[in-house]
Design a protein that fits this description.
Elements (H helix, E strand, L loop, with lengths): L1 H25 L1 H13 L60 H13 L2 H10 L10 H14 L1 H8 L3 H12 L3 E3 H12 L3 H13 L4 E2 L8 E3 L2 H10 L1 H4 L3 E2 L5 E2 L9 H14 L12 H10 L9 H12 L3 E4 L2 E4 L1 H9 L2 H15 L3 H9 L5 E3 H23 L16 H5 L3 E6 L2 E6 L1 H7 L11 E2 L4 E5 L4 H10 L1 E4 L3 E5 L2 H9 L4 H11 L6 H11 L11 E4 L5 H6 L9 E4 L2 E4 L4 H10 L19 H15 L25 H8 L10 H14 L3 E6 L5 E13 L5 E7 L5 E5 L3 E6 L2
Helix pairs in contact: 2-3, 2-5, 3-5, 4-5, 7-9, 8-9, 12-21, 16-27
């Protein structure tokens, strides 16, 4: 009976799922509609602009940390704590995403400025017939529609020869910009064949509108991929761009360690160790040999003596102010440690990656490239080739913008060693015969793919005063345990011993009697044993009757308390919660707190109620946040970072030797003469009278040609006596003045 009544509903659900899958596979309906809407309105839209994920490249940031390629996308426009995180990559036609309004507007702007001959090639490659399109504007609309649909571009790429797809993939891995002569050598090195054959392959890509060229200098030029096309090409060249993986039972792991915890666990544990046993330092600021031996023995499960992993930890603590030199010893700055621990997981990761990159060049890039192997082994040779193309792409981009077109000779057989990252515990080294392979360690995987929530939330407190804290505990909880108990061992679980001395030290650090008891009672999985509680009360005595606090007191209206305490971004600023709605904050960070409260939609008082006394600034905490700001600037997809070509559509020319390039040589280019000042003034008068928008070509102060979409209002004279036009910039909405004498061309929008 139940089966019969449920059958129609199940059928309807199945039909809905099939329709949903069909729409997702087609993926172009929404994009086409959006494209039509965008182009029919002449580029007017929401004006939100395209927000690309990833710094350079970018950057769109690849959602799983990126494929094993470097792609030029854009710099993410994001606020400090509102940026998107790395997530799963979009790949394949079955997961085509719809283009946003900002992306469609960017395509329209780019294609409208692209030389007509290159636009025609691209439209023809997408299956169109340029000869049957009346004007450029209509061709721009149709090209955008074809890109938005997705299938048209995929069909074009499937029709390419394997060599052509591989050449396009190499060019994208180089950042979509490459020196003509040096790229041919790179293709010969990476893919075999000869340079003459690869030249013909690139000409085929040029005729498809996928590749253009810069201007020539002494026969040398740069190959350029139109920037908006790159991310779409990445989606369709998944197999060609992916780094090769390998799996075999006979691969022997050369450096496997039984215990490989996350970095936040080892950093926090080392802070606790240094806090309880400050090591002595020599005049050269090295740790005394006897203290170093004790430290190495204690952390023998984490690293080998004098390993890169140990030195990375020490450098990280000192660079970020978590530890500092105090006399002849290395001491912990508890305030900075707590500041670091209160940062969200992404900020902590950004700082760790920044430190890795400072110690090992492109460490983050290498880790993400190996991560694209999905846990399998990545062979050393193809990884070195990918690394070589990525670094050369960065060099080519710099040379292009400097105007350095001369070819350079490099050691094409240069090898790149990944041994430092192996020694630092980030890569596992596998060996099979003479071949070397790499994959990420659990420590590195935890950095790229942080676990969803903490593995453990409580520790184990035994009646014998011992605490066992597994590696999955939140680092802040781990650090607080180290303030109350003596650290006695570091293995898969840290072990601590609550002693009279450790309790006495915790009271000196600011812990109150009730806070200690509540912390142990709530944090222990089995509660606070009665004998331990009674002993603690004896050790702590009655406690202080009066306490003094040096801070700024933040008070909150009762109706806003829930909003304040629920906001994750406010947690680093709240030093102590006295009662709901009353919090202690660091007086040196008042401007940051004020800005954060404003961003949350609250209305803070403009001034602090001053009472006698001023707090001294903590320089180390300020330094930590300066370093964090730098890390955030480079926190986006490392596979794409620094690879935005930064080229304009006007920079693209037909590739020499292509069909478009030959037509260009045969047909003499007719330069449209520049408008005179009188002609420009006359055209502007007419546009003002008819209330028309105009597109102008304007000569800037540095001689660079700029293009504006304007709504002219009136003609006037500036204080210097120059004739200017007062106009609204349609793209930005700003009201500006433009010198009429600098306007070179005017096109009226009908």
């Amino acid at each position: 009976m139940s089966t019969q009544t449920d059958a129609p509903a199940d059928g309807r659900r199945k039909r809905r799922r099939r329709r949903r899958r069909k729409n997702e596979e087609e993926g172009g309906g929404g994009g086409e509609a959006q494209a039509s809407a965008s182009t029919s309105e002449g580029g007017k839209g929401s004006g939100e602009g395209r927000k690309r994920n990833g710094r350079r490249g970018g950057r769109r940031r690849d959602e799983d940390g990126g494929p094993g390629v470097s792609t030029p996308s854009g710099r993410s426009s994001r606020r400090r704590r509102r940026r998107k995180r790395r997530g799963p990559a979009v790949a394949g036609l079955n997961r085509r995403r719809r283009l946003s309004q900002g992306e469609l507007e960017e395509l329209e702007d780019y294609f409208s400025r692209l030389p007509d001959i290159l636009l025609g090639n691209l439209y023809k490659g997408l299956g169109g017939q340029p000869g049957r399109v009346g004007d450029t504007k209509r061709m721009v609309q149709l090209a955008i529609r074809a890109i938005a649909q997705g299938k048209r571009l995929g069909t074009m790429l499937k029709g390419l020869h394997e060599k052509e797809r591989m050449a396009l993939a190499v060019l994208i891995q180089c950042g979509g910009l490459a020196h003509s002569e040096e790229l041919l050598r790179e293709m010969h090195l990476s893919l075999g064949g000869n340079e003459r054959d690869w030249t013909r392959v690139l000409l085929v890509l040029a005729d498809k509108g996928l590749v253009g060229a810069s201007e020539e200098q002494d026969g040398a030029f740069f190959y350029l991929v139109p920037d908006p096309l790159v991310e779409h090409l990445v989606e369709h060249l998944e197999s060609e761009l992916a780094v090769g993986t390998f799996q075999h039972d006979d691969i022997a792991v050369a450096n496997q360690r039984a215990f490989c915890p996350p970095l936040d666990f080892s950093v926090t544990t080392l802070c606790t160790y240094i806090d309880q046993r400050p090591p002595r330092l020599t005049q050269q600021q090295d740790i005394y040999k006897a203290d170093k031996v004790e430290l190495d023995e204690f952390f023998a499960q984490l690293w080998e003596a004098n390993s890169e992993l140990f030195h990375f930890h020490i450098d990280f603590l000192i660079q970020h102010g978590l530890c500092e030199l105090s006399g002849d010893r290395l001491a912990v700055n508890r305030e900075v440690v707590e500041e670091w621990l209160q940062l969200d997981a992404q900020d902590q990761k950004d700082l760790l990656f920044r430190s890795l990159d400072l110690r090992f060049r492109y460490a983050e890039w290498i880790m993400y490239a190996v991560h694209s192997g999905a846990g399998e082994w990545v062979a050393e040779q193809p990884l070195q080739g990918l690394y070589r193309r990525w670094t050369r792409g960065e060099d080519w981009r710099k040379r292009f913008h400097k105007g350095e077109f001369a070819a350079t000779r490099t050691n094409e057989r240069e090898s790149y060693s990944f041994a430092p990252l192996v020694d630092a515990g980030m890569l596992e080294l596998g060996e099979w015969g003479q071949e070397k392979f790499y994959r990420l360690t659990p420590r590195a995987i935890a950095m790229i793919e942080p676990p969803e929530g903490d593995e453990f939330s409580q520790f184990y407190l035994t009646p014998s005063y011992e605490i066992m804290a597994p590696a999955g505990l939140p680092p802040m909880l781990l650090f607080h345990i180290g303030e109350l108990a003596e650290l006695t061992g570091c293995d898969r679980a840290n072990t601590y011993k609550v002693t009279e001395i450790s309790v006495e030290q915790s009271v000196k650090k600011g812990w109150r009697r009730d806070d200690i008891l509540d912390f142990l009672r709530d944090g222990s999985q089995i509660g606070l044993p009665e004998n331990v509680e009674q002993t603690l009360k004896i050790w702590m005595g009655p406690g202080s009757d009066v306490e003094f606090h040096d801070c700024v007191l933040l008070t909150v209206q009762k109706s806003k308390i829930r909003q304040i305490e629920a906001a994750r971004s406010m947690r680093p600023f709240l030093l102590h919660r006295f009662v709901p709605g009353m919090y202690a904050i660091d007086r040196t960070r008042f401007p940051e707190v004020y800005a954060e409260l404003t961003e949350l939609g609250l209305v803070p008082a403009k001034d602090i109620r001053h009472y006698p006394g001023q707090a001294e600034q903590i320089l180390a905490r300020s330094n930590l946040h300066e370093l964090l700001a730098e890390a955030r600037e480079t926190s986006d997809n490392p596979l794409a970072r620094a690879h935005e070509a930064d080229t304009q559509p006007e920079d693209l020319l037909p590739v020499p030797g292509s069909s478009a390039g030959r037509r260009k040589k045969k047909k003499k280019k007719v330069e449209i003469p520049r408008m005179t000042t009188a002609e420009a003034r006359q055209a502007l008068d007419r546009a003002i009278a008819l209330k028309q928008q105009v597109k102008v070509q304007y000569s800037g102060k540095d001689g660079k040609r700029l293009h504006y979409q304007l709504q002219p209002t009136r003609l006037a004279l500036n204080p210097a006596g120059d004739q200017v036009v007062v106009a609204t910039n349609v793209e930005t909405g700003d009201l500006r003045t433009f010198k009429v004498a600098r306007i070179e061309r005017i096109k009226v929008n009908n």
